Amino acid sequence: MRTRTDIRNMIRPDLLELPGYVPIEPTDVLAARLGIAPEDVLKLDGNENPFGPSPKALAAVAAERNYHIYPDPDQRRVREALAAHLGTDARRIVCGLGSDDLIDLVLRAVTTPGDAVIDCPPTFGMYPFCAAVAGARVVQVPRLESFALDVAKVEELAAGANAIFIASPNNPTGNRLPHEDLERLLATGLLVVVDEAYIEFAGTQHSVVPLVPEHDNLVVLRTFSKWAGLAGLRAGYGVMAPALASVLMTIKQPYNLNVAAGVAMLAALEDAPLLDERACTIAGTRDRLAALLAGLGWITPYPSEANFILCRLDGIDALEVKERLAARGIFVRSFDTPALRNHLRISVGLERHNEPLVRALREIGAELGR
Ligand code: PMP
Q: 222 by DSSP, 3-state: which?
């Protein structure tokens, strides 16, 4: 029974009920569970960069001496370097603890409790999670069977909502937001947040950052987690109208971009040609892996412009396959939701990882009668 002094009475009731975001587990935990060395884990469940960080970023973090000093709350050097990299104005940029931080900040800036935010599943789970934490109502507009957005439905509901979040390429489906769809979304007057966490694997010529100055209601999120292999450092940013950026700079935690992340971002930007080349290699490995997976006969890989491949499994249980892969030290993600029945999402590793992965899948297929 809940008494007056029960701590739960002091907590927002909606948060007591919140299911929470389901994060992926770190390599050492996965290895310990299997009793194998962490270097023997093939971690293909987190869409991380298999090349790791740029050598310049690692050297910069090691060389930095000012870890006893608070970082610049105005993030001046990094915002200016990003502005030069993107060909935009530093006043449009806000950096944070990964793009997750920006999702949270944008939602806190534009919603008051009860406001509606449109989410288009299957997509990244942080959008409805952060919306719920901000006290917003999440309105689901499921994607069509092709995983394209149901733009007509969004147009119908837009008047009653504040913002919409779209990942492009989308996680976990791998498809990009077509330009015509973006134009229609922007015309609704909603705040349109385009999350480009994986854009470097599609080609940055597809980025919509250049459209931001033309549309005050467009926010683009980017991250160093995927392209720059810095997921563990937490470094992301958003590009938006200066008036919104200024509010985000005011409401963020003052030191949300730590010294190590800041120097790593600057060094990674200097190493952009190498990181672009790696992204291109990963895209090539992805396309070869997709062909190998399709060759198994019981896996249908969806076309992907990101660093992962969504796979539909036919006549074989995805969770069972995931567990049998895990027993061999290979970790992938499984989905079993109304929109994604019996699916796996496989992150793209190095070229040399394709063969052991496909061999393990072939063995598991045979074990399960395929
Ligand atoms: N957006 C999408 C679509 C993602 O898949 C992810 C990471 N899984 C993120 C954002 C979060 O990235 P970050 O590490 O920058 O917080």
A: strand
Q: Ligand 1: which of 103, 221, 223 to mutate, judged by most atoms within 8 Å of the beta carbon?
A: 223
Instruction: Give per-10-residue mean pLDDT for the chain (370 aa).
Output: 81 91 86 89 97 98 98 98 98 98 98 96 97 96 97 98 98 98 98 98 97 98 98 98 98 98 98 98 98 97 98 96 96 93 97 98 94
CA 294 vs CA 38, 153, 179, 314: distances in Å: 29, 33, 29, 12
pLDDT of residue 321: 97
Is beta strand 116-119 parallel, antiparallel or unpaired with respect to 163-167?
Answer: parallel
Q: Could you tell me if 345 and 172 are in contact, meaning their C-beta atoms sit under 8 angstroms apart?
A: yes
| Lining residues, ligand 1, CB within 6 Å | 47, 98-100, 124, 167, 171, 195, 197, 223, 225, 231, 236
**316 to 299, 320, 327, 341, 365: CA distances (angstroms):** 9, 8, 17, 12, 8
In the chain, what are the domains? 7-51+274-367 (3.90.1150.10), 56-271 (3.40.640.10)
182 Cβ contact partners less than 8 Å away, ≥ 6 residues apart: 192, 194, 208, 211
Cα–Cα distance, 250 to 289 (Å, whole number): 45
Within 13 Å, how many C-alpha atoms sit on residue 192's CB side?
A: 27
Residue 311, CB-side half-sphere exposure with 13 Å CA sphere = 33
Q: So what's the pLDDT on residue 23?
A: 82
Q: What's the first-to-final CA gap in the chain, in angstroms?
A: 53
3-class DSSP assignment, residue 231: coil
Query: What pLDDT sits at residue 214?
Result: 98
